[in-house]
Amino acid sequence: MKRSSHTRIVDLAREAGVSAMTVSRALRGIDGVSDAKRAEILALAKERKYLPDLSARSMAVANSELVGISVPTLFNDVFADILSGMRGTFRNAGFSSLVETTEYDMAVENEWIERLLSWRPAGLVLTGFDHDPRIRERLLQATIPVVEVWDWRPDPIDICVGIDHYEAGRQLGAYVRDLGYRRPAFIGAPFGRDTRAERRLNGLCAAFEMELAVSRPAEGNAFEAGLAAGRALLSADLSPDVIFCLNDHIAFGALSACTLAGLAVPDDIGVVGFNGLPLASVLPVALTTMKTPRRDMGIMAARALLARRNGISDRVVRCLECVLVPGATTRPQR
Amino acid sequence: MKRSSHTRIVDLAREAGVSAMTVSRALRGIDGVSDAKRAEILALAKERKYLPDLSARSMAVANSELVGISVPTLFNDVFADILSGMRGTFRNAGFSSLVETTEYDMAVENEWIERLLSWRPAGLVLTGFDHDPRIRERLLQATIPVVEVWDWRPDPIDICVGIDHYEAGRQLGAYVRDLGYRRPAFIGAPFGRDTRAERRLNGLCAAFEMELAVSRPAEGNAFEAGLAAGRALLSADLSPDVIFCLNDHIAFGALSACTLAGLAVPDDIGVVGFNGLPLASVLPVALTTMKTPRRDMGIMAARALLARRNGISDRVVRCLECVLVPGATTRPQR
DNA sequence: CTGTTAGCGCCTTCAG
DNA sequence: CTGAAGGCGCTAACAG
């Protein structure tokens, strides 16, 4: 009188003439079963296509083998890279990941976190630090490890593995300033929601000791946004000598804008990206950019979470280094 | 004597002086609770930060509000688009999605499907038709809806929403052939694993009534692959007059290869992409390509799955149309 | 090495 | 409109 069509442990137990516990132990590779019985049980399980019911297991052990991961968007190789590193690590450890995209919307993230917590996950990974204060409060009290990635701050909810965006901006700015550029401009986030980009901008301002002219594309695809914003900057009467971009995709759009405006890069104007994506290598001119350690970040974040879950490690707060990539879209001035 | 720190239904019940069932009904918005009690219970639940335990619910109702989605990779806006449409639809229906990437590896997919089924999901979405025969067999017997997306065939496991890649290739080929091109070449999949691209190639061959010269980049990033494969084609002595590419990213790389080889596009050679991604619009020259209905595909796939789960609909097999995007990377010959 | 007992939190079913 | 009983499949804890 089975309700579902699935084979259960008791079914195997009955058929093998042992108790359910013995089957459970055999299946999980736990000590306390004779080799003969174990082999027999495993064979039977395979034959009957036994699949454990993970919900039932979750209930019995009061926590699941699920980790929740929230990223702003999947239309961005940055997050694809981070996810790639993270998920591989989780998968190898036997965890499945529930991925959600927030579209840079806090309300979406809130809702998702609620729902996710209902699955009693083993841990939680969030992108950045822009969370609803109430959610933050709640997570501070939670008993599961929480990792914040991509951004860096000394006071995370729990664990943090990221980069210092202000410092990355400052370093990139200093390099370009030292090339002799004097009239920098900046293309910001299409949606004005990306606070990491803002901090990079602050770093740039610090390096140049001035406020940069900023263009913020309304919205839409990154390439198109870069194109539009680039045009806007060039048609205003600021005549920038270098355009910093939120990221490499935007930089590509900006590059197109320059070309279309009849400006040669780097002869007439400089263009600078951020992230060091593979895209940069096939651009007409190799992009000056800052390479971010995305994959490693994902791997480290996942490891830190797992370690904490296993009680091995304490809180981890890591700030990773970026690598300057001097390209051909900038050159010494004068 | 609570094991976890979570508030449970019985906790609320005790505090409200009612039975657990009444709380359960109130929380789920089910008839059979007086308005007064319901309001009181809801307020209490909020105050106590009650979160349902989804594993427990899954067990009780013998299926979860989880759907599994498998895509080859996240480094591709095609799948990001499909996912975007799909997940939005699932989310609105109250489902969480467990997304996995297979990296075009069948073994990975197999393992994932096993694991996923252990969560007793409400449904399953797979990309394409290249599954392990045993898995296919197993899913055919499964009682949950299974959707195959992106590709199209008359005999799916269950539901199918995709495009006819052969036909898309044929149409694109016919258009270019009619422009007067006579020496077409093709850049294929970096990993040789993408059977959809192969069928598009077959369609191209049909349109030109000949075998196309083919270059298959070894592996790596799409842009770089396109660049390398483009170079290979140009340095061989086939002197193609048009290069068809697996997708738009590859086409961008190929475009760079042409430029670097001193060939002007479209004057000296034509380049054709596939997918109609936003990238195409900021390329130096607008790309001739075929626009695929990715987002809609995701939405329709999700809807079909949900409808089937609710017993509303029968099997759905849909073949969507692509839209030819004539660009400036090709032009009438002679 | 093996089995028994009890319970995870929720929901279905059936009785009031 | 409300409640009591029982079970989903699994595993911890405790016997033998």
Strand content bin of chain A: 15-25%
How many beta-strand runs of chain A? Answer: 12
Stretches with pLDDT under 50, minimum 5 residues of chain A: none
Name the quaternary structure.
homodimer
- How would a textbook summarize the main sheet of chain A? 6 strands, parallel
Write the H/E string of chain A, N to C: HHHHEHEHEHEEHEHEHEHEEHEE
Helix share, percent of chain A: 40-55%
Structural class of the helix and strand makeup of chain A?
A: alpha/beta
Cα radius of gyration of chain A in angstroms = 26 Å
User: Widest sheet of chain A: strand order?
Assistant: 2-1-3-4-5-11
Gap between N and C termini of chain A, in Å?
86 Å
Could you please describe the fold and organization of this structure?
The structure is a homodimer of 334-residue chains. Chain A is elongated. The longest helix of chain A has 16 residues, at 77-92. Chain A has helices spanning 9-16, 20-28, 35-47, 54-61, 77-92, 106-117, 133-141, 165-179, 195-208, 222-235, 248-260, 294-309, and strands at 66-71, 96-101, 123-127, 146-151, 159-163, 184-187, 213-215, 242-245, 270-272, 289-291, 317-320, 323-325. A six-stranded parallel sheet of chain A has the order 2-1-3-4-5-11, with helices on both faces. A four-stranded parallel sheet of chain A has the order 7-6-8-9. A two-stranded antiparallel sheet of chain A has the order 10-12. Chain A has twelve helices and twelve strands. The first copy, chain A, has 334 residues and is an alpha/beta fold. Chains A and B meet through helix 4, helix 5, strand 2, helix 6 and helix 10 of A and helix 4, helix 5, strand 2, helix 6 and helix 10 of B. Chain A binds a DNA duplex (16 and 16 nucleotides) through helix 2 and helix 4.
